[in-house]
Amino acid sequence: MPYITGTNQTQIYYETHGEGKPIVFIHPPGMGHVTFKLQQPLSKKFQVITFDLRGNGNSDPGTEDITISLLATDILQLIDQLALEKVVVCGYSNGGSIALEFALSNPERVEGIILIGGFSEVNTFLLRSEFKLGISTVKMKGLSVLAKVLGKAHGTTKEYKKEIEQYVKKANVNILYQMYIRGLEYNCSHRLKDIKVPVLLVDGSFDFYMHSYQRFLEKEIPNAERVFVNKARHQVPTRHAHTFNQLIETFIEKL
User: pTM here?
Assistant: First the structure.
């Protein structure tokens, strides 16, 4: 299996498919690179790079305390060791916070940003409650329950639901707990105006509790475009993969 070496010699699992402009996909806590299985058709035109955040899937947990900055640094190590000059970063849900941190910390390495249900801070009751539920579930050793919920919510077939569920179960519980805590605490809202590259904000039309976040990002980021996926909730990359892939293709071709 292919690995790169992250900070403090942590082994980070990754996969790369295709050639062309590189897209780095960043998953939410727990889910791993299988989150973007249905984005593989994009490899016909682009270089599709997926990986497991440290302590998730096949990646080592490492010895350092988790921060969003640390996770962003792992991405920098990934693209450095793949000898990539610039990339498009695509973050899903809390993976969007990591994408934002990477882009803000390494602007010279980013050509574009795609956020699916992303946010720069957690400041609403519903999203805060969702994070706290994740924290409580992991703390009470309910990883199997969480895995089943995520698999059922995202999978489009019985086999894919099972694949996601089994992959979530591989997560290091302590790392996952820290990721939820850090995701809840993270805030880069005051830095959004520093983003100079084009940004695509993808939002499910039925993902109502996230709409305020997307409106805020569209307002604060200078070159942001907001797109709704019709009849979609939060799980756009898996349940609306064809439409999502088309949006990515159009966005990157404009770059």
Answer: 0.97
